[in-house]
Sequence to fold (674 residues):
Amino acid sequence: MTLAIAIPAGQAEARNAWWRHVSSRTAIYAFLTLFALLYLLPLFVVIANSFRPLPEITRYGLIWWPQHLRLGAWAEAWSSTCVAGTCAGVQRNFYNSLLMTVPATVISTLLGALNGYILSKWRFRGSEVLFACMTLGVFMPPQIALLPWAYILGTLSLTNSVAGLILIHVVQGISFATLFCRNYYVAIPDDLIKAARIDGAGFWRIFHRIILPLSPPILIVTVIWQFTGIWNDYIIGMAFTSGREQPITAVLVALATAGQQAAPFDVASSAVLIAALPPLLIYFIGGKYFVRGLTQGAIK
Amino acid sequence: MATLTIKGVHKRFGPVEVLKGIDIEARDGEFIALVGPSGCGKSTLLAMIAGLESVTSGQIFIDERLVNAVAPKDRDIAMVFQSYALYPTMTARQNITFGMESRGVPRKDQDEQVARVAGLLQIEPLLGRKPGQLSGGQRQRVAMGRALVRNPKLFLFDEPLSNLDAKLRVDMRAEIKKLHQRVGKTTIYVTHDQVEAMTLASRIAVMHQGSVQQFDIPKRVYAHPANMFVAGFMGSPSMNFLDGRLAARDGGALCVEIPLANGAVAALPLARPPASAPADGRVVLGIRPEHLYRYDAELKAKKPALARLTAPVELVEPTGAETVANLRIGDREVVGRFDPDGAPELGEQLDLGIDMTPACLFDPGSQKLIPDAA
Fold:
C-alpha cells in the first residue's frame, strides 16, 4: 500500500493528510471485510456443518462453532444416504450431472462457434433476423419452455433420461454460445476471410485454420459459462427426470426435506459441497481466463 | 499474357448504384492505378475483379476469358490488402504457403517457392515469426510474398501503403516499383493518394462517384486533365481555378480577363487558342501552383507566355525545398510554389508571373477541359 500524497507545507498539515489517508483506507477495508464475511457466512456454515456430528447440530443449532469433528458425513452423502427411493448416496446423481453437463457444454459451444462464424462472416439474406431470434433465447426464462419440452421429450421417448437433459441444455445453450461467439468473431477483420478465399480456402478450411485458432478466449468464456449454468440448473432436472436419473442439483432438495425425521443436516451439507465442487473448481482454474476472454479483442 | 478488360460494368447495392459503367483495359505487364477520393467505387471495382463481389451488369475478362462467374481462387489472381490480412496465428512462412496447401502443392515445391519469393523480397529472416512480431513494413512484404508465390496472372493491390507512416510509405513505394520492374506482372493498384498513382502507374484511371473521369498516362492526366475534378484531384497543392471571361485583345490574341479586387481587370494572354469557346465567353482558368513565379525580365525571356499581374501575399509556408505562398487574385485565394531564394514575403504586393503555356481552360457549366485548337 503506497501512501501517495502530496507533501504539504506545514508539519501539522502533513500529519493531518496522513491521518485522513489511513482512516479512509481503514474504513474501506472494514466495509469490504464486513460484506465479504456476510457473503461467505453461508459457505462457512455449510462447511462447518458437514464436519459436525448430527446430535451436536440438533442440539446447538446450525450456526455454531464445531465442537467435535466427524468426517463420516461425506462418505454417507456420497454412497449411503437414502434419497429418491434408494439408499446409495448421491454418487449416481453426481455422475448424471457430469454426464449431462460435459457433452452439453461441448456440443453447445461448438454449435455456438459455428453459428457465430456463419452469422458474422457469411452473412446472407435474413441472417440478422435469424441472429435476433437466436438471441431471444438468452432472455427467455427456462420456465416458459417447460411444457413444449415435455411434449418434445415425450414424442422422442427421452423423458427421464440424461440424453433428454442434454438435448434441452444444448438447445437452450446455443443462444448464449451464438451470442458470445458471433460478437467476438465480428471483430475478426473481413479481409482475412477475403484473403483466405483468394488463397483457395473454403468454408470449413477457413473455420478450422483461421477462425478456431483465434477463438480460445471466447471458447473458454463460453465453456465456463455453459458448464456452470448447466451444472447449476435445477428446474430442468427437477421437471424432466426423477429418482436415479436426476442430476445432483435436483436431488439436493430431496435431501433437505427428508420427511419424518429431522433433516440430516450434516449429510445434506456434505452433499451440497459435493455438488458445488465442479463449478468451484472451474472457477478457480479458469476464472482468470474468463475475465481475460471477456475483455480481450480478437485481433490486434 | 495477362490482360484485363472491363466492359460496361455496373454495380448496384440495393437502390444505390456504386459503379456506373466502367470501361478499362490493362495490357500485359501494365501497372494501372485506380485513384479517387473515398467512396468513388475503386475498392468495389477491385473486389469485382477479384471475384469477391458480384457484377450487376457488364463483363470482366482476364486474359480474354470471361470471369464473371468464376470463383476468386480460380481466377489466377493475387491480392494485397490495406490491412495486410495476414493470418495472425500462423508464421510468415505458413501465411505464404497457406494457398499452396489449400491447392495440394507438394511440400518440396512449396519450400522452393517460399525460398524464391523470400529472396526476392528479402524476408528470409522473418519467415519463422508471426505477424504480431513484425513491423508494418515487414508485414507488408510478407503480404506481397503471399501474393507473389501464387505466380498469378494479375496482381491486385488495395491501398497497401495507407497504413504505413510517411517515411515508410515512400520506401515501400519504391520497392513496389522495383518489384514491378523485376517481375513485370499486370497490376491493378487502388489508392486515394495521387502521388502514389503518379509515381507507380503506367496508366491512371481517375474515378469519381462511380465513373472513370479519365484513363490515360500520368503525364497527360496531369498536364491535360479531362475535367475540373481530375485537375483538382491530381497534384498537391491543388490546381488553382480562376473564373474569368475570354476576350480578344488588339491583334486578335485571346486572353482571359480576371476581375481583381479594386474593380480592375487583369488580362492574361493565352498561349494557344482554344478549339471552342462557351457562348457567353465565361471560362475557368486552371493554373498549377508550380507555374507561378516572381516576375523578372530574365524569366520572361525564357518563358514568353509569362503573364504578369500584382497580387498581395497572405500566407507564407516555407517547407525547406520550396516556399508555398497564398496570394489573393480578385476574390480567390491562389496557391503558388516558389523557389525558397527570393520567395514572396508576407504582406508583400508580389509582382507575379503566371506561365500560361501549361494553363488549362475549363467550361464552367460542364466542368470539362476546353481543348486547344488542333
Observations:
- Residues 12 and 18 of chain A are 10 Å apart (CA to CA).
- The interface with chain B takes residues 189, 191-192, 194-201, 205, 209-210, 213-214, 299-300 of chain A (CB under 8 Å).
- The domain at 91-295 of chain A is CATH 1.10.3720.10 (MetI-like fold).
- Chain A has two domains: 11-80, 91-295.
